[in-house]
Amino acid sequence: MKVSLFSSWQVPCGIAEHAHHLVAALQALGEQVSVVPFDRRPHPRTDYVNWGRMMNAGDVAHIQHEYTFFGYLLPWRNYYHAFTSQIRKPLVITKHVSFDGPLILADRGYMRLVRQIKWSLYNRWLGPYATYLNKGTFDIAQQIIVLNEARKEQLIARGIRPEKISVIPPGVPDVLPAVGGEPLRAQWGWRDKCIIGVFGFITPAKGHTVALDALARLPDEYTLLIAGGLRHEADRDILDVIQQRIIQLDLSQRVRITGFLDEADIPAHISACDILVYPYTHADFSTSVVLGLAYQSAPVIASDVATHRELAERCRAVALFRSADPVDLARTIQDIMYDEAHRLSLLRGAKQFAQENSWLVVARKTRDVYVRAMNAFSQGRCLVSDSV
After folding, report:
1. How far apart are CA 151 and CA 147, in angstroms?
2. Which residue, 192, 252, 257, 362, is most buried by CB atoms nearer than 10 A?
3. What is the pTM of this model?
């Protein structure tokens, strides 16, 4: 089977990482994959037309979809139709981002309100255009892949037929051993500290201020490593809020922000941590959480947003706390640090999860979706759902 895959590629991006692992696993199964790469930079409409034509080189076309890949949301900047109108092969779309449900943000300030208003607009208030963004964008495909059950239910609620939707969570990557943390702890003056790690890009919904507020409630022996930097310059205000909050809480000696980490530096920074925390207030899915589980080095705590609850149900490797609640986060951190049996149980769960959810497993499930898409295409069926 020949597959043409459109995705962000070889750029710092969770979707690019997803595509990298999927392509490698499909190739390991003997499939031929040709990547039509996106560099996460602005492009003219003509580029999207050309990329759409390139998608016809395979037996099936697969789009890794994120709205920013196509000029984002404004109608006059959205080149998605220019791209997809050129595709003449069975189409599969992986939906990575959703506007469904409320956008809860822990940070304060006018930008928080701006982001929530924009979210509500594209969620429902723009009428036909919102329907196109949230339903029509995906319903043109023979098959749709989502990363968790919550996103499937949202698409069904939008009016898409359930037989078109497959739930395939991302796989657990093979990683280098988490070693090299002790020199970092010594360098930071944290050799005898309990280090809480928050990994991933700094974005509005990652809940970094929740982690800071929780840290302020913990004894001085606890410190916080924010391992990541900005993905978009537009999120600069979030970093400013975080830095201001550090000063307000008098945490300057207990917090370290690394900025963007090269992939080679991640194992040592993971190794330096006693516990990993993912305090997201919204998440479609997070490669960072799965990566934390992959290292099997430190227990993982995550907010109880729907995607994290589903992940916790799939494996006994994630401890949950009430989203946006720093008091509950502080309590959960201490409960785990003082309970060795619980810590070991979470690490055993991570090991089992990694063994049972490899990228080869994901590739086999994805290949089955390709076959269903080709069968539907050959029968002249797209199963475009009725309007709602």
Report:
1. 7
2. 362
3. 0.83
